[in-house]
Amino acid sequence: MKRLLLVLILTFSFQTLTKAEDIRDFQIEGISIGDSLLAYLSKSEIKKIIKITKNHYKYLKDPTKYREAYIFQPNNFKTYQTASLMFRQNDDNYTIMFVRGMKDYIENLNGCFSQLNEIAKEIETSISNFTKDVREGKSKLDKSGKSISYNTYYTLSSGDAIMLTCNNWDEKLRKKNNWTEGLSVIVRTKEVGNWLQGN
Questions:
Q1: Are 148 and 137 contacting, i.e. CB atoms less than 8 angstroms apart?
Q2: How far apart, in whole angstroms, are the C-alpha atoms of residue 92 and residue 88?
Q3: Which residues pair with 127 in a beta bridge?
Q4: 3-state secondary structure of 96
Q5: Which helix (H) or strand (E) holds 4?
Q6: Where in 21-128 does DSSP place strands (E)?
Q7: Strand boundaries in 48-170, DSSP class E
Q8: End-to-end CA, the chain
Q9: Of 114, 84, 46, whose CA–CA distance to 192 is shortest?
């Protein structure tokens, strides 16, 4: 059975008390790894969106190996404002291999940290056989070095991973580019993780 996980603490709901071992056991707004993106967007919507996102990963060796589509502020989302979903290029089934839920915490880093810590506690009671890694780093998109991301990684025995991130952009850069900042909760396969890391 799927479990509803990785949403804000007030809306956590568990359907089983057993520990999760498979990345497909986790959902963000009801979306899981292995689902078809066609359950959420039409082919024409997907094609429009991936034209917009085609340059998002141009710094990678194979920037279009996976394609990314967004669902913006849908009425049926309970927690997050946006979802980002990735699938293999030329996959006619549009099988989801990466799910990210995003919630704004503009100029509210402490609020983001508070939520990240609550979700981290829930994850640690729900999974077994994992390694945890906490990292802080400067964004490559900000040459000034003032923009920081705070990341907590949970890697399962399979190599698949759950990531929790609070982004804090330099305010001038954020306003100039009309960017948002805040919480990202990501569920991804090992394969997509390797691609994002340039492996």
A1: yes
A2: 9
A3: 20
A4: coil
A5: strand 3-4
A6: 26-27, 66-72, 82-88, 98-104
A7: 66-72, 82-88, 98-104, 130-138, 148-156, 161-168
A8: 33
A9: 84
pLDDT in tens, the chain (199 residues): 444 444 433 333 323 334 567 899 899 999 999 999 999 999 999 999 999 888 888 888 899 999 999 998 667 788 898 999 999 999 999 999 999 999 999 999 999 999 999 999 999 988 888 999 999 998 877 888 888 899 999 999 999 999 999 999 888 888 888 788 999 999 999 999 999 988 6
Give the three-state DSSP class for 132.
strand
Q: Residue 155 and residue 171: Cα distance in Å, rounded?
A: 32
Phi-psi region of 161 (alpha: psi -120 to 50; beta: other; left: phi over 0): beta
Alpha-carbon distance values, 110 to 35, 93, 150, 167 (Å): 34, 40, 12, 11
Q: Which residue has the tokens 């990202």?
A: 184
Give every CB contact of residue 196 below 8 A, 6+ residues apart in sequence.
57, 60, 188
pTM exceeding the 0.90 threshold for the entire prediction = no
Helix (H, G, I), strand (E, B) or coil at 110: helix
pLDDT score for 1: 40
Say whether 83 sits in a helix, a strand or coil: strand
- Torsions phi, psi for 118 (to 5 deg): -65, -45
Compute CA distances 123 → 98, 100, 154, whole Å: 17, 15, 9
Which residues 6+ apart lie within 8 Å of 170 measured at CB?
Answer: 142, 144, 146, 147
